[in-house]
Amino acid sequence: MPELSGVHPAWLPPEAFRAIGSRRTLVLGDDVLADTVRAEVAHACARYGGTLHDDRDGAYDLVLALDSEAGVGPEGFVLSRHDGATTVVAGGPAGLLYGLFEVVRRGETAFGADLPAEAHRPALRRRMLDHWDNIDVHPVMGQVERGYAGGSIFWREGGPRDLTRVRAYGRLLAACGINAVAVNNVNVHATEARLLTDRLGEVAAIADELRPYGIRVHLSVNFASPVALGGLATADPLDDGVRAWWARTTERVYATIPDFGGYVVKADSEGQPGPFAYGRDHADGANMLADALAPFGGVVHWRAFVYDHRQDWRDRSTDRARAAYDHFAPLDGRFRDNAIVQVKNGPIDFQVREPVSPVIAAMPDTRLAVELQVTQEYTGQQKHVCYLAPMWREVLGFRPWGPDGRTVADVATELVAVSNVGDDPYWTGHPLAQANLYAFGRLAWAPGLDPADLLDEWIGLTFPVAGDPGRLRRILHEIMDGSWRTYERYTAPLGVGFMVRPGHHYGPDVDGYEYTPWGTYHFADRDGVGVDRTRATGTGFTGQYPKPWSDVYESPAKCPDELLLFFHHVPYGHVLHDGTTVIQHIYDTHFAGAEQAAAMRDRWEKAAGDVPPELHARVRELLDEQVRSAREWRDQINTYFFRKSGAADAHGRRIY
Amino acid sequence: MPELSGVHPAWLPPEAFRAIGSRRTLVLGDDVLADTVRAEVAHACARYGGTLHDDRDGAYDLVLALDSEAGVGPEGFVLSRHDGATTVVAGGPAGLLYGLFEVVRRGETAFGADLPAEAHRPALRRRMLDHWDNIDVHPVMGQVERGYAGGSIFWREGGPRDLTRVRAYGRLLAACGINAVAVNNVNVHATEARLLTDRLGEVAAIADELRPYGIRVHLSVNFASPVALGGLATADPLDDGVRAWWARTTERVYATIPDFGGYVVKADSEGQPGPFAYGRDHADGANMLADALAPFGGVVHWRAFVYDHRQDWRDRSTDRARAAYDHFAPLDGRFRDNAIVQVKNGPIDFQVREPVSPVIAAMPDTRLAVELQVTQEYTGQQKHVCYLAPMWREVLGFRPWGPDGRTVADVATELVAVSNVGDDPYWTGHPLAQANLYAFGRLAWAPGLDPADLLDEWIGLTFPVAGDPGRLRRILHEIMDGSWRTYERYTAPLGVGFMVRPGHHYGPDVDGYEYTPWGTYHFADRDGVGVDRTRATGTGFTGQYPKPWSDVYESPAKCPDELLLFFHHVPYGHVLHDGTTVIQHIYDTHFAGAEQAAAMRDRWEKAAGDVPPELHARVRELLDEQVRSAREWRDQINTYFFRKSGAADAHGRRIY
Hints:
The structure is a homodimer. Chain A is an alpha/beta fold. Chain A has helices at residues 18-21, 32-48, 93-106, 164-176, 190-193, 200-210, 225-228, 240-256, 282-293, 323-328, 389-397, 408-411, 434-445, 451-462, 469-480, 483-490, 549-554, 564-567, 582-605, 613-645, and strands at residues 24-27, 51-53, 62-66, 77-82, 85-90, 115-120, 126-130, 133-138, 142-144, 155-156, 159-160, 180-182, 216-220, 262-265, 299-303, 339-344, 367-373, 414-418, 528-529, 570-571. In chain A, the strands form five sheets. Chain A has an eight-stranded parallel barrel. A six-stranded mixed β-sheet of chain A has the order 2-1-3-5-4-6, with helices on one face. A two-stranded antiparallel ribbon of chain A has the order 8-9. In chain A, strand 4 (77-82) and strand 5 form a beta hairpin. The A-B interface holds A 139-140, 313-314, 508-512, 515, 524-527, 632, 635-636, 639-640, 642-646, 656 and B 139-140, 313-314, 508-512, 515, 524-527, 632, 635-636, 639-640, 642-646, 656. Chains A, B: Keywords: Hydrolase.
């Protein structure tokens, strides 16, 4: 097992393997993944005195074996316990690995009472992390775009790193169910474009480290590569020379990395090149790459994050929220089977509160990946505690066709997230942000899991407590369970979004994007606030949803309060479902949110004896910043809306 | 004469020397500056067929001679013409040079009718440019902080440049009367700090190029140099070791550059180190450096731009406008004779409209330099035409003690400006921005000059027109004379200041600085706008002025309209002296300003045949940007205040 000095073990400290390590274990299988399982068990036994066997005859506490007839697919497994033996029967080598980590999660309880056979298989076949890592270091963005955990774990500036840590990373990801990683930024700059060709060896080296943990490597590519790298005059997806270039190039990729996953593409978006330049559409572009990948079983992830980022703020008819649907819904049915349209969970851009993207319900004949943002670009940048699993759970459980219809998790074939990992000693900047990465993988495996239960799992694995385990568990739940809603309270209200400092996106600036070309406006004036996206009087965005939501969102009376300002421009005196006015709600939530941030800090003090002192100190420092920032949000938002509305706070609190 | 290929000759094209070059000229004097004069004349004669002589006996069209008894000081000269001879009698070698350039300015008229003796001498003894150049290139700021004309003319990235261009620069500066240049940024970073010690040779090389044009070189130094460069434990100005270090270091500077001008210091300001760290004040700091410089005749320029840049926006009692006076006025009388307190023209920071800094009237026993900003940080960044001489004329002619008192130009002993020059082919980015540099030098020599006359001088020198000279002259006056007021119209209204995008300061962002620590607020709410700086109800800043201004500014009725929002928070319905309300004034000026910018562009089209085509095209491109930007300002400002006030435009124009 890779053990890294100076790097926190996250949810796989040695103690997590105590229950397995002290037992007699049989592992059967001769695949690289079975070898990994054996190595894990052997390592645990070396520490805790158990034994590893490969002989079918004998009595074992734990048996891990393959059976392709198990009926749970290549990644699934059946877990059972009777007659004093715990058994994992896996449908394929990956299932063996996931079964092992299921036993690790259960710890001693896996070796307790009898357990009738439980079938486990992932709900989503691809559970993927997109790294926005660059090779070069950008003077403002740093090396990882929207990265808040230091530099890349794949590259030092300019070249490949020692990859020991990448092996450990793969192990952590496998333990929460992730099976694919795109290694580089979707904004593919000149240096990184070459990972497809003369720097492909760097990708292969990463793939070698991740393969033992069942993780396939994907690559973000620049759509203009045939021009930039191939010296062709065009990147037109219907041009034969271009198609041949991609075919040849892809063939070379697979010759080097036989289990390569495929390409990720951000095209015709925020300045990236794409098929529009040649009068082609997104299906033309995606299918061209899909065709190049098909012979090798690869896929292309084609992002639906396409909008006009040079909008005129004066133009009220253009609505960024509409853009992905307007571009992609008409193309439904035209994408190849191995062309996956990757849709952000909301129509704008990873805000703390957005409706679910209408694209998800609009492309029944297209394979869809739903993209979440684990990196906390708009949710506190890993300086704030903001446990995001409750938000993701809501997204995955949302039923676009109403209470009797399917959920987002049913519709999506894949779940993808932007990674929050860097070369930080705690992996994720904020130590507690590890929980987001863990929970993302687990939800991608089983979208119905309860976020509080997932937090429980993560706590149990991550913090082998010497003292009272109940106390730390309680404190962490108190701090983290509601932290997303707390963050929502002290930032942009009622789904209106943004109000962040332009560029870096940290901290408040209510008008920061109001008069910019980015399409993210709130239209606050002295009378009211919010974006009219109705069909009746606004941009018509509500019409992109199927019933009942197209009607629910259309009506200010029926629209859920938390999305009111996303869909409607209302007077400050508009009364919410709880009887509060919008302006009073703004004041109330902002005072409450800032108070709750302060309460988090107080609670954390009580955990001082239960976690390593360095970790405690680091979280305390970050909580200090969160409290400061929450107060800043509170005061700027309240002052801004007080100056606009003139409405006094019903409770006479201090507004500046 | 340095003639540079690919670099515009600015106000010294060869044609400017036509009148001299065709005549018989006698130059007497044996100084390096007399040699320069001779070289200039010889060069002109080579082109236009005249002759240069050094023999007193003979008949000459032009005589340039020294007479230390002339009574006009070392830089002055007496110009006269009779009996067909034009004579310059200079009080010293520099006067010879300035006399030559006076004859150049007059051209043929210097050789026309008789002229009774005219004494010329500079009103201000030091006329200085501060370069904010760095050796290294900052990823965001570039090489020149607030530079809008490319990189430094002194350094390529990391090291010294070929300095041929610096010689040409010195020549241009001498021709408008400038006699001192500080070569590096007042924010002295690590690399540039070493210009004082092991990189001093780079400063000496620049001094060698500027010396023939009567320009002394000054250096911005880091107050913490004894620690950073000298390895001392302290930079305490009262510490003997520190004083000895500065004495030794300064001695070495003068051993290398005997006519070195002195140091420029930004201390305890915006994060720069200073005497506060040691419990000392600005006089202690400045005097320590003055003592080190005194034996060699050097001076220290100590900037009064000191304020709390980490202010809490919630704190209404702190007023950045007060800061310089609060820090410096109590120290009056404590500065050495060679310690010059350098005060920005306004109390905030080079806004398009500010009152004159009250510091200027508050330190009768201190030598003061008034600092202007030729680089257009807040006035269009050399993308907009904004001829600043009318503003500077107002500042220099302002009478702090009322109509019968002295002017700012009377009180100041020096005039300093932040340079607008870079390695751009036109020197100043915008070709028409050359006029600002020219006018600054001329106003520092003679603060009473009329800005329109100065523009005339500049046009006559810069554009030797083939066609109708009157037409180009008229067009440029139409575009430039009122361009400062046009810029004022379409940007922040009525002296309120800022409302620019944070960081780069280009373009509008009304609330951009409203909730930041920088102390630049407008306090606009639904009822009114402006900063209450009165003694009666505000920050008390008005009390820093002597009468009558302390009373004029205190009263909303008496306060000049253009400064109303600088001094008062007033309702949108407040009626200005012309009978317009504040809100209607905002609308009217912004519609008018944007229209006037468009009219500038139209006028420029008519000059197409009168200036070189590349210059015409460059200005046209920049005017396109100015028109676009002015429209953006118009719409953002109008929309912002319409949303806040709800007041309809009296003329029903489009507000978004």
